[in-house]
Design brief:
The protein is about 45% helix and about 15% strand. By secondary structure, the protein is an alpha+beta fold. The strands form two sheets. A four-stranded antiparallel beta sheet has the order 1-2-3-4, covered by helices on one side. A four-stranded mixed beta sheet has the order 5-6-7-8, covered by helices on one side. Strand 6 and strand 7 form a beta hairpin. It is flat and about 65 Å long.
Amino acid sequence: MDIFTHAVAILVILYATGNAIFIPFGVLGAIIIDIDMAYAFIPRRFPSLYLLHHGGFAHSVFGATILSAVAFSSVLLLSSAGLLPMTIPREILLPSFACVLAGAYLHLFLDYLAAPGLPLLYPLTEKRFGLSMVPMPVYLLITVLGIATLAIILLEGITEAFAAGYLAVFSGLIVISAGMKWIVHRRTKGRSYSTLHPFQWIVLREENASCTVLAYDLLRGIIREEHHEKYRNITPAEVARYDSLPEVRRHRYFSYVSTVEKDGSEITFHDPVREGGLIAYPPWYPSVTLRSEEAAS
């Protein structure tokens, strides 16, 4: 989700639950998670640090907790130094920090609904979790809703009726998205991902040596079907020699599915979903080419 939606969602929830005094802390937690966009240049230079990309470490429960603690501690230091026009009474320190965490965890939950995958359980595992159930047109509607709501709140303030209205509209858009996701799942049986088109979804079916990629339209059914061998001119045992290389780990982390082919001394890892333009996000490293001697180095 976009930063406006994250900020408005926690703001409205805290207001509606009678915790308006903690809104600044909740908003802080909700937006601090996306600080990973500020240091995206680091993983571009160092392949082994690919989890510093947007949607990586900062979007895990562990990372969100660490960032929340750092952000809250920074506010306390600035406040105690007189650099902020506010002081935080000792008796509300704990609930204030709890609201920072609430904003951060709500951020993760909303991104879980929309994103193809987040490393929520890192460092226990790099496995990505996500429902990818919000098509881009609905995502844009949610963004416009968030921006408009934030503008109205800043100009006119907020009321209980307005907060309830926002939550109703937002929830309605999520329910619509979930309904489409459910229909695709029932009709196709596979891992499904939303796309730029509201009615077209990508469905993946994997077996040990091959994978099937379907483009499914809610109105027309299957409109495209591709079959890909996972290994061409190379065996799984040979591929395993490259598993620990940072470039390969980075590629696989961002990929929906990974296939491998060998051409002479070159080994190329592909993500046919992103290379074929079926889904553009995430844009990083849809393929990587290595030379066979790199496995031994």
